[in-house]
Amino acid sequence: MDDNLLLKVQDFSLSYRTRKGDVAAVNRVNFDLKKGETLAVVGESGCGKSSLARGLIRLFPRNIKNVEGQILLNNRDILSLDEETFRKEIRWKEMAMVFQGAMNSLNPVLKVVFQVAEPLIVHYDIDRNSAFGRAKEVLSMVGISGAFAERYPFELSGGMKQRVIIAMALITNPKIILLDEPTSALDIITQENIMNLLKMLKKELNLSYIFITHDIALTSELADKMAVMYAGEIVELSPVEDFYSNPSHIYTRLLLDSVPTLRGEKKLKSIPGSPPSLIDPPSGCKFHPRCPYVMDICKTEEPPFYKISENHFARCYLSEDKKV
Ligand code: SF4
Asked: Which residue among 2, 101, 176, 270 sits deepest, i.e. has the most Cβ atoms within 10 Å of its Cβ?
């Protein structure tokens, strides 16, 4: 086994129960993550990206129906652990998460240093002074200097609050951080600052990220490899360079065609139609009702993963010999 391999996700699926039927939010997902590596997971809203992230850290909603597969962290199947062991040994300690919109859920009546230190006091039984000392260290690492650490959340800008949220994820020294749309609520300049911070932390602390985003333009800054999700499935997995230079699944190509570039005459295109219901998804290739290249086989038979090159796979019949 590769010594650098940190996480191996195998045939991971999860579904929710709803009044209208069962929702297959994540369907047989497979990927690896090495130490210090970033996997960006992209796709339209409702494709299962956030469900995947929450599933990895086992924060399931009440209506969870089924969870299957294996999540191997350092070769240990953390999906089979009982909840108490997972909470004590894995969640926050090995794997932490920056939730979408979390900066708006900081407690307005507690100073930020306390909010960052709290997990050490409550879960690790570390005395208050030591916990505050460590919290200040981590806050300083994310660019919140001493005086600001003693402030209340309402005294901080959006970017500073997001730095506090990142400090909260780092306080227990996790090896993997799940970033769920970490910059979506920020203006473009602050977004750039937070991306630079994430890059710096990744390098300094040798962190691994799973970066969930609908904003493809951001991925080139942080990602080493890309997973494109559609209707709960990964339809293309590739090194980041191949994602941009040799996209193979038709959905990936259309996603890229919908992203503006700074230079060039590129005409922006939107993807026709809308994502399918995960209660009753289309047969065959789930993208077939929207695909401009659909063939008869696409409507009835699920395409396999075709190997395009080393570490590059796509689940589209046209990837077989790159006919398009
Ligand atoms: Fe389109 Fe068929 Fe490829 Fe699906 S498998 S993306 S329907 S060409």
From this structure: 176
